[in-house]
Amino acid sequence: MKEIKAQEVFLEAGYQISPKAVEMITSHSAPNDLISYILENVDESLFVIEAEHINIESFEKEYPDLPKECLDEVPCSNDTSTSQVSPVPSTRSPARSSISSTPSPTSSSATLRDERCFSDSNGQVNNINIMSDITDMSTCVGEYMEFVQYFRNRYTKLSNIIRGRVTARPIESLNKNRKQSSGIRRGGGGDYNETSIIGMVSEIRTTANGHKMLQLEDPTGSFPVLVHQAEKDLFEEASKLVLDEVIGITGSMTNDGSLLIAKKLVLPDLPNISNRREGTWGKAVFTSDIHVGSSTFLEEEWCGFLDFLNGKTDNEQLKKMSEEIRFLVVAGDLVDGIGIFPGQEHELDILDIYDQYRKAAEYFDQVPEHIKIIISPGNHDAVRQAEPQPRFPERITSLFSDRITFVGNPALVDLDGVKVLMYHGRSIDDLVASVPGVSYQEPEKAMVEMIKRRHLSPIYGSRVSIAPEKQDHFVIDPIPDILHCGHVHTVGIGNYKSVLLINSGTWQSQTEFQKRVNLMPTPAKVPVVDLSTLRTTLLQF
Amino acid sequence: MAEIVASDEMHEYFNTLEGTLKEEIDIVNDARSRGKDPKPHVEIPLAKDLADRVENLIGVKGVAELIRKLEETKSREEAALALGREVAQGKVGEFDSKSEAIEAAIRVSVAMLTEGVVAAPIEGIDRASIGKNDDGSEYVSIFYAGPIRSAGGTAQALSVLVGDYVRRGVGIDRYKPRKEEVERYIEEIMLYKRVASLQYTPSEEEIRLIVENCPICIDGEPTEAEEVEGHRNLERINTNRVRGGMALVLAEGLALKAPKIQKHVKNLKIDGWEWLEQLISGVKSSSESGEDEETDGKPKIKPKDKYMRDLIAGRPVFSHPSRPGGFRLRYGRSRNTSFAAAGISPAGMIVMDDFIAPGTQLKVERPGKAAGMAPVDSIEGPTVRLNNGDVIRIDTIEEAYALRSEVEEIIDIGEILINYGDFLENNHPLAPSPYCFEWWIQEYRKAAPDAETNEAELKEPTQEVALDLCKELNIPLHPKFTYLWHDIDNSQYTALADLISEDGLLEADGSFLKLPLQRTIDTGMKKVLEDLLVQHKVEGPTIIIEEPLPFIYSLGLDKRLSKGWDSLEHEELLENINEIAGFVVRPRAPTRIGARMGRPEKSDKRKMTPAPHALFPIAEAGGNTRSLEKAANFKVNTNSKTGMIPVEIGNRICPACGVEGFEFRCDCGEYTLPKLFCPRCGISVNKAKCPKCDSKTTCTSMRKIDFKSIYQKAYANIGERDHLDSFKGVKKMMSKHMTPEPLEKGILRAKHDLFTFKDGTVRYDMSDIPLTHIRPSEIGVSCERMIELGYLKDIYGKPLTDSEQVLCLKVQDLVISYDAADYILRITQYIDDLLVKYYKVAPYYNTKHIDDIVGVLLMGLAPHTSAGVLGRLLGFTTASVGYAHPYFHAAKRRNCDGDEDCVMLLMDGLLNFSRDYLPDKRGGQMDAPLVLTTRLDPSEVDKEAHNIDMCASYPLEFYEATQNIANPKDFENTMDLVSGRLGTTLQYEEFMFTHDTSNIAAGPLKSAYKTLGTMVEKMDAQLELAKKIRAVDAPDVAERVLTSHFLPDMFGNLRAFSRQGTRCVKCAAKFRRPPLTGSCPKCGGRVILTVHEGSVKKYLQVSIKVAEEYNVSSYTKQRIELIGYDMKSLFENDKSKQMGLSDFM
In chain B, which residues have their Cβ closer than 8 Å to the Cβ of A351? Predict the structure, then answer.
């Protein structure tokens, strides 16, 4: 393949490409496939494709010997019709080597605490591997320095991600310049003023003239950044910023050195080309917000769902699908709880919290043995309200059968090679309130915002209660294959840069509260994910 | 103005007050012209009538005259509407734009509707503006702010009608809401209800009806931090936050007062309000159950438990709703009750562990929501069972103190005196009256019109007399011997009659009845005797009932205790008794009124926190205590000059000599002007707006001032030595121009240990309680002095000679607590010091002892209002309340349901008040004497006062009508009400009362709520009392306190902990989240948390204990359990737990 041709292809697609990158492509054994692959995966915000943007290793790993048409079979999230039931898993053997190949988590709490092997009826093994979870690791006692450490840890983790893309200086150094007499600094070269910083957003406001004024903070100091209204794209990006997220800014200093005028904004977003997941065989079912005990719990629909899991269905396709299910993942709000909101006692069928869990346990006992169940808590559950929440305590887990794996919230779980990040989703409330264009009707958009920020719950001090732990458990690292949330009671399925986003809806019809604030839930819908293709099917009960 | 109708004596009284007022104003004008006050004259304009007040308050010239003209022919409300229209059409005042005219029109109308007293028209209406409908037409929106609350529902609702009325006048179309806007209102009002609570919450349908049809757009400023979740970012609604003013006007105004609006709409024949009809008929069907509506045609008073909501620890319940043993309603008015204040026996106050003191607020079941408490000893006190088994009624304070420690159970908490007027004001159906002496005596007189009536003897007749009267005159049994038969049933009655018949032993002369104790207890009849309130003593194995004959006859027994009946025919026991007994027995306590404690009484100096002596800004230089002495010795750093402090202060310039400074008056004698500049362009401009960039100019900036020399000069100027214990300033002036007051005033205040309020005045707060009559002896003033003050005759027209004579209180005279008197005394001494040392004129008061301050002029002023009322100090009381004529309270727009407000020394207000000190923010004009009402015209006070009855007795028909739960309106014309006296000389004189009280200060000095220490102690005392009172269900109280106080507190604090902001201990800067640097980015100081573990956990242990002890519901128990686990998980380290540390704890 000629270099000119490669350049043309990229120009047509709207990208510049560096000579070195062209060289890399042309020197590869399958340049056409590589070009397609790059264009598939490239970050659209990029202007110039550099050599570093081309990940030949991952390309080769992903498509070593697949026929060409497979390239079209990128997991498609929008394909959620109930009628479409995916075929039986291929004859490929399950990827048993997945445990060793998972990147080891950075946080100290993420040691491989729990490694169980289950055998289902066919003698196949369902590996569940908890990679990150706060349970039994909570060290907070509620002191001021813990809060500081918590945010510093967030800054460290997220700024490290950004630092690979921006050469930033500590904020302290800007303040030093500011104190010097302002006139002297001027007169240097053109680039003299170009400065980058990485900071946590501590204040966002709109000036009288409609510009955005940010206050960025790092462990050395704090500095104001102005985003000009005239810079349309940048301003658009900046208007989506939320408090307490960590971003990089490149810009120029004003004359007196008191303000940084932003030119470029860098989020700790996912890399443009990431490793394609290994995948495994079989299916996983995702659900949440069951609210057992509430008078609005949809018991009939829920039992229909249990029947489906047991293969009790006339629909052959569904029956077949149910047989392939290996995992049932529940992201919080198992029960409605007690005392969660004022006057809740009037909206409950079961007033005793333990009776609520007993009832829930009865339901889960009906799930067939070959399906492994993973449950994390939510804000209605009987664990501490402050996040990260540990898994249910012994007095509750003992009500359930041993085969259920209980994890905290959030938790990163490896399902036989597919990494699932479970988070109940309290922060979606905050994101809906803060980020334009994010709504309760499309919760997957809020989840995109989480991934872009590499943080599950950036905004502090609003609706999410936090426990000041040493580690910020909300930082999204490593990158999961699936991000699973609930909480908002609306189903949403999306895809962002190879991460499958699932908000799994609810089993509760519209509550009094939701009526008041005009929220329409989408109950009794269950996303079923094919673990080999990450293709999602949405079932309605 | 039209002269007030009053007798010569009253005219003389008013003239005396006004004469003294004028004298004081002259002195002050002279003094102020010598000092460095903002203005060389008094800054409180006088208003003789409503018209003056409205004009002074709103500042539209010519309005007063127009009001007087309109009032000649129209009612107050009609006149207000007409006034609005005339202003909008530009007949008075001058305005730049349509919307400005509309705004002013609405303001004057609301001001007129609220008697020109409250701050609502200036603070509660932010602005009116004109918007565009989707069809291109224009509409008017009114922006309401929080202080609109002070206008009250009717005026709030009428303001909307005014808006509609004036928009038609100027030809603007109606508001046509979009669908999403309607839904936004619904969500927002429901949310407001959750965060701030509403008196009345309209249903969704009602809100929809109102918004879709209301011709004015009810908009508002955001008042709450909460944001709506659903209907956000609407084009025509500027905020996502909750607009409190809007919610109030819509819910408590339009929805609740729809009938009143409709009346005016009909009178004025305005179209477009037909939907009110639908609202009114709809409101009824959806109104909450528990109201006293008719069921099946038969009216009935149903228990209401609304007052029990939101129970707080330490504020006990005295009676569950309408429960036997609770307060027994008695109709009547004592000289210190009415106007939402009720009377109870002072003995009851003491027996109920001192929780009620004079002035304590009680939340009551009916007729209103709350009532201030006043001691009335002519009504019955509580009935108790002592440890030895005796059951007695305690009517006197002495008995109460002597027996309190022996009380085992409070079987009945006694009577509560409520006047007819309060039922009328609340439009509450008249609950059945008990059979009481006032009723009985009228039946007696009717039956024996010629008989000699010795009231004292008839009040306490012997059993023989009582029975004879029944027989001879065929009148019902005297209330003294009428027991609470309606509280027991037929079977209990039968069992009691059988027991007495079989085991009773009647003394031959019938003077007492003996019963065997053990058997009476075993058969359960002791309890029945107690429930009937039959007083008895236990002597050894015997129960002794004195004067038992009426009781025995009521049981259908004869003198030989043989039963003259076999079976009971009627279901109602009283019907049976009336057949069996041979005389009529009336229900003794058909109406019980539930009550719990509201807020405690108050009598304390007004202090801001921290409390300053001088309005002088010193920023951080004075440290956290704002010490001025510290500021004078402050050094920015070691090399800088002592006392040079950086503060934000206004810059002023002298127009004569051009010298710049910060004082109101230049040393050359000329008054200075604020030196304005544009903070944006930096240019100096002498206008309110910058001509270059149109932004607001200011004269304030951060400057360094030589405070030490100011400080020393001030001391030297008044010849005082610098040895004050404490002398505090403020951190920053809140006023627009940030000009401080002369420091000398602060020095003298500190010298006399007085604190200043935001406007430069010294104030004292007291709970409002009404008072219409006094005895010189009880207010600590001699007869001679009373005569000097114009009290010549008692209520019977006899000349005043004895200090026990009862006198009618003059309407602007006040009786204040001794503590208040002490404070006022110090204020007079401070004023004298100020006159002599600062203004260099002669002293005025020359007071040494509190006797010297009798007769000084005061000013009363209520929160949320802006008009002071002239008053005169008449005497003192040991109760912690401010006693004044109900007119006086009404003139401040206060009733006496437990509210408090302040008095200040008039001269202090005249001398030291200035608008220039008032905060430049929303609500800053509230609670400041912007005008002074000098003469109290009952027609121009809050209308509520017109419903006070002033008669010596209620007619027989009244008592009879209450048995059928009559409408109070039926007696509006029969009763001697204030409304009937308006416009005659009787509006000020010849008031009477139905029940006397011997001492207006009887009872505990302070509520136990205030003397008990921690919340846990208060809670314990509250539950102890709950266990003692029969009408209170202690476990229910425990549960309610847990669910409405402790659990929300713990839950809230736990949430707050995990979302908390932080604070710098050094500079008090606040941060939403802890700074990453760890220390304060502003000053490098140490940063700390604002919510601590301790405050989160403080109620956990006591909650667990109370839940166990009172066996509350398992739901509540589990909630406590879970929140305990939650705290444990948050505050305990899992790792250290593994090491076993928790085992040691």
Answer: 1114-1115
